[in-house]
């Protein structure tokens, strides 16, 4: 199997043709899908009093990065199919093979170009899409009204401290000024509930937290009594209480990685977030698979009448990957698959499938 390039001229020609057609397909998809999306959302946007054309343009500017991110691999797949089918139809593939250029050498420029596309896609997702998604989610949460300022208040916070469970209705402030309100502590020993401690608030003192106005209910005795100066969560820093719900689509790779570490230290489940973290890499890399999966459209005699069937087969392989990828990610979010398996199994599987098809048919 020869993975070297056929020639510099062929490499530049095929890479340029592939990139231009993929970008053209992406532009067409974005225009059509954004128009359809605006038709569905414009009523809700304009329903808020005072909204008008500026808000529609704002929505379009926030939605466009999401559409680009989601449909870039589809555009690469279709761009590859158009490029290879055209080369085959014009007998350019036959000319390359007559010059002793192998199937892998023909696809190599497209794969290298798709690696560059994947790198740009990762940076675009990390820097632009995450911010647009976070802003749009906050805007939609207030039904396209003014977005309230973030007051730093987190609600319904749970934390595990050894065997004990700590719940706070709200957490406000930052650093040493953090205040827990509506605190409930489930004191457990070996998984057995011993007592329930409630308090109006808790403040950090030293390396622990002191409950204000605490009441302790002894489960075995069935007696409630005051518990002045009751301390909890020794060695727990305030940031472990101030962690809000984490959405992978709204966090950059480094921010999500840091949040996973903090949530893990707080004893919260992180499996779905780890799957989302790995998918931030495997998702953009799916563009690298598309030339390999669509490569079946490049070979075989066009005049045999099977070019269309080959193009359909390449499209079917590409769309089967997206179905498998979404299914595996959903299983990872449910905890049925380990995070790394949910993110990487479809990529590796279809990489092997694409290689097997190419080697079986052409090499």
Automatic annotation (TrEMBL):
The keyword Cell membrane applies. The keyword S-adenosyl-L-methionine does not apply. Keywords: Cell membrane, Membrane, Transmembrane, Transmembrane helix. It is found in: Cell membrane. It comes from the Bacteria. Pfam families: LptF_LptG. It is a multi-pass membrane protein. The chain crosses the membrane at residues 18-36, 67-85, 106-124, 281-301, 308-329, 341-359. This is LPS export ABC transporter permease LptG. It comes from Sphingomonas arantia.
